[in-house]
Amino acid sequence: MACIGVVEAEKRFQIIGLLGRKEEVGRRILGYPVLGTDEDLPDLVRKTSHVLIAIGQIKTPILRQKAFEKAGSLGARFPVVRSPFSHVSPSATLGDGTIVMPGVIIQPGVEVGRNCILNSRCLVEHGVNIGDHCHISTGAILNGDVRVGPGSFVGSGVVVQEGTVVKPKSLIPMGKIVRRR
Length: 181
What we know:
15% of the residues lie in helices and 24% in strands. It contains three helices and 20 strands.
């Protein structure tokens, strides 16, 4: 639901509908119709080429990554969606399908991969590199020159020391302090 708020606030795209579970089809979520399930994705991509993967990432990036790859194989295009209440340095790069939530600060020289979630109020300092399919949770702090491997989850309130390398598919629970070794 948080993704809907960002799309609405940015005012660059119109939401035509959502995909959900079978029992949700025909319902409305925040005023938007649930048009179908993942099986209906080919039909949806024929109607509109822009898709945003709104699956959160708890424990594993696999569902989010598979949805991104499936939609991509059908010809979907993945816009970067950015809250107008965030700050992204002009020298930062954001990969296709990445969403930047309200209050996020992204400093100069940051590179963010494809299909990432930068959740509310996280701070991404200068020179950070975040791999594809990562979720940086609320209030996390990635200090300068941190490297986050693809498929990683950085929990709420995590602080990562400058220059630290986070291995691919890492799961860092909320509130942890991660130091260089």
